[in-house]
Amino acid sequence: MKTLIPTIATGLLSLLTFTSCSSVNSAHPLTKSSNTGDLESFDGAWTHGGMVFTVEIPKKAPATLAAATLAYENDKFEIIELKAITAKGQHGQYISVLQPKEKGDNETPDRYMISEYSFEREDTLLLWPMEMEAFAKAVEGGQLKGKVHENKENKFMPKAVTLSASGKEILEYLNKHGAQNHFDYKSPTILKRIPHSQGD
Questions:
Q1: Could you tell me the CA-to-CA distances from 124 to 18, 127, 192 in Å, in that order?
Q2: CA separation, residue 123 to residues 37, 47, 55, 120, 130 (Å)
Q3: Which of 15, 30, 62, 129 is close enough to 167 for a disulfide, judged by CB 3.0 to 4.6 Å?
Q4: For 83-135, what is the HEC assignment?
Q5: Is the pLDDT of residue 189 over 70?
């Protein structure tokens, strides 16, 4: 499963974006929003990069999403599940995806990938990951708690950022400084909804 989990997470970062190779991650999700807004728009089946993800909205967990996909490994199917939390800020809507772990891994700390998201149409979801340089500056300048370190997982991104600030602090930072320079708008991840007639 060690090679499988990052692959699935890459696709789901696509859905809900992150892998162990991501250049920015957070110890905490952004604070849940009391305004769930377009949360129901996530509900259903989505596709990206040849993978299909089913997204549900747990009834007992407002502003939370549950997603799953199937993977075939060692002659059997494995269900990969992910959880995500949505938050609404002054400059955009955000989603924090909990990074999946190996089964039985109780030692690795929780890590979240935070993206800004927008529904372009009913059948199209756009996600923009955090911009590493912007958050590295925020950490090095003392505006956000965290650590800038060598990224051994990705030779194309020599630096990585791990935020230790609370979800509330990160959201307040984005509200104050704006999202424009803090997310990578050049290359969005694009997910397409599978119509019910095809997904049934």
A1: 19, 10, 5
A2: 17, 10, 14, 8, 23
A3: 30
A4: EEEEEECCCCEEEEEECCCCCCCCCCCCCEEEEEEEEEECCEEEEEEECHHHH
A5: yes
92 near 110, Cβ under 8 Å?
Answer: no
Distance CA 9, CA 29 (A): 16
Share of the chain above pLDDT 70, in %: 82
- Side chain identity at 136, as an amino acid letter? A
Sign of the alpha-carbon torsion through 18, 19, 25, 30: positive
Q: For 4-130+185-199, which CATH class?
A: mainly beta
pLDDT digits (tens, 9 = 90+) for 17-56: 433 345 899 999 998 766 556 788 898 999 887 788 889 8
The model's pLDDT over 151-161, given as tens digits with 9 standing for 90+, comes to: 776 666 778 89
pLDDT for residue 4: 41
130: amino acid identity, one letter: M
| Residues forming beta bridges with residue 26, ordered by sequence position | 112, 163
